[in-house]
């Protein structure tokens, strides 16, 4: 008897799930349109009268940029439902690997392309163009109970983060600070966030070896939130969601916020987020060109919606001009 | 003459009983600990995710807003992928097991093959991902498609299925085979009509455990480069797709706390999916085991 109940229950749930999976496309499409008109009205949409395109666009890359791409893909669906856009989240480095292999049309990156990646692209005969789509402030954070290290200079950041073979205490940086050991949290070495920090702060030196690395930035948030002596860094969006648990460190006296990041006053840690496109594919794939045009028109709004900072409008216009030149 | 000294027995009885109790308590704690972990996990996931689990969650695509986020693409992708993995891995696995158990001679080469299959079962899944990327995605140019992912996952669970099927076939008593031969049946007739029906419950149990593993694996999919962001359903074997564990992994990494709850809702869907698969297997198994 019991067995029968179990079976019927699972059968019902099973068929429900299966039917749901086969549910109609139009239904969800309509609903999305409703929820999205509000965000769309503000931005220019150049292709309103354009015919429906078909084709597919595929990309990969930074998980930092991914939320922006996801938002763009979501609203692009309302305009061109027949264009199949897909994007992975293999990290900036992993994304470039696929871009070099010619497997993707575009590659998201949270740092500029490296020289060896440029060389590999040249060798593969792939011409590419770089577009900036948003700004992110790489935010250094400490525990709220940490009242001493809330305003650091770049020099002090270097002193804290560069491996010098000793176990560093806060008092080693400034004698007036507590003589307690510093606990480090950093993004994983395959992430563009790590690379960017490496370039502007570490200057090629090794990162403190006791640092706990994680590809999941939420782990870093939890780590710093749970230890009075901890220091960590990650994208601004993660700080924004956890302002009650973390204190953002001012860098050279400048606090990271939308304004300071947009105007690049929060230097050197405000960084642009990039999309790299394969020139040949822009030329031959009309759907891809259309998607990139849409991206540059809407990236600012979408970036803000998911926790990043928009670029000045001129930069998007400039990007659109460059894109037109590729066609 | 007395063989048993009652007083000695009585004296030791207490310690023996106590020892028994001690071991029993240990085993019970072991069981309860596992159960407790499961309950805590389930309660946590369900309380976090249940608020986001509704019809829209199943029929919507992923979204930048947690309240609109849905799992449609991933769920359909996982179901399609299962439709490739199940036949490919079971046909290949059972065929290999039949060959190794019924046809292959006992010699060094076959022993070597057997040993290697058992070893393969312990290879980390990420290695299979690299294999899939090199062979299926790049060499055979299948791309990041359903077919490439399905084949990679099939390879991943193949050793487990082979080993389980071998055990099941070996457990069929030799007398049954001999009786069949005695009636004049050929080897093939014996295998299809005597050995396989008797071995099916065992084969299915092993296969289902293996398939459940395939549905929850993330690492090989990450290595192959399966996309997470897409708003279309696969329309063929070479179509791109996304799968449940990829989608859950992506949500769990988001900065917004709400997405963690969405991830929990995704985990509930994944678990329901597993429960359904396992129930189907139990149903088939019971049906077959009644016949023998």
Automatic annotation (TrEMBL), chain A:
It is a lipid-anchor. Its main location: membrane. GO terms for cellular component: plasma membrane. One of its GO terms (molecular function) is phosphate ion binding. Residues 35-47 have a biased composition (Low complexity). It is found in: Cell membrane. Pfam families: PBP_like_2. Residues 1-20 form the signal peptide. Involved in the system for phosphate transport across the cytoplasmic membrane. NCBIfam families: ptsS_2. The complex is composed of two ATP-binding proteins (PstB), two transmembrane proteins (PstC and PstA) and a solute-binding protein (PstS). This is Phosphate-binding protein. It comes from Ureibacillus acetophenoni.
From TrEMBL, chain B:
InterPro entries: MetI-like (IPR000515), MetI-like_sf (IPR035906), Phosphate_PstA (IPR005672). It is a multi-pass membrane protein. It is found in: Cell membrane. Its main location: membrane. One of its GO terms (cellular component) is plasma membrane. GO terms for biological process: phosphate ion transmembrane transport. Gene3D superfamilies: MetI-like. Residues 75-281 form the ABC transmembrane type-1 domain. The chain crosses the membrane at residues 71-100, 120-141, 147-169, 190-212, 259-284. GO terms for molecular function: phosphate transmembrane transporter activity. Belongs to the binding-protein-dependent transport system permease family. CysTW subfamily. This is Phosphate transport system permease protein PstA.
